[in-house]
Predict the 3D structure of the following.
Amino acid sequence: MNEADQAYYNLRNELNDKESELRLKQKSKEQTDHLLNEIKDKLNDLKLHLAGMKERLSVEFKVDLDAILDEERNTEIPLEDLQEKSDRMKKRLENMGEINPTAIEAFTEMKKRYEFIVEQKNDLVNAKDSLMQTIQEVEITANRLFLETFNKVRENFQNVFQALFTEDDTADMVLENPENLAETGIEITAKPKGKRPTSITQLSGGEKTLTATALLFAIYLIKPAPFCILDEVDAPLDDANVGKFTQMIRKFSKDSQFIIITHNKMTMASVDVIYGVTMQEAGVSRLVPVDFRGLEHQFVN
């Protein structure tokens, strides 16, 4: 009986050991199953990630992943450097923000606008250059014509001045700023006989009138006009100078018609037709014409 009891306890202890060992095996199996499930999950994630990569490579880069898996690596750059570069590029992409799907259209529109503005700018620059060249040509031509006309007027002025005064009297026209013809003034000097050269502003009233008349006819000789109106220009002249004035008018009347407003009898006596204005009634003026040409013709007959 004691031996049987001893054997029983020995078997029970052995059974307990087997049960403990079995529990350890089951626990280990559970851990292994859990690890296996984690591996399966990770494998599924890798498969999904691989499928996404294949799809992305195919859509964005037109690359078949299955075709390049068997190719040998043809770069010597370490994987760590490539990974670092990839991370850096990803960070730059993240900093750029979300992708604007209309960016290409906006860029195309802005590019067209930019090209249009650049074309307009080039047209304006070319037009400006052409305009500046034209202005320069106009200035050169204007300066040349101005000098030619000025020299002709100056020569005529000197001749007419001597005709109104005497051959011993001199006058001149001088450019104040010959370097800038567009802004220069013209100074007129006159030297009647027995006087020093002086500006026209320092002459007497009669001398000013004759000098101004000489300048008028000097310009008139360059481009004669069909009509010329003179308003009492003979008022400050004495009889001798009035005679010179009327002779000058008579000389130029061959090409132009002169209308002279005057109170001088000598001037009236030298004209062809007189139009007198009288006032027979208060506020009522009347025009009285006298044609000396007809009277002279009758006198001759």
Residues 297-301 have pLDDT under 50 and may be disordered. Helices lie at 2-60, 65-68, 79-96, 103-164, 205-222, 239-252, 265-269, 292-300.
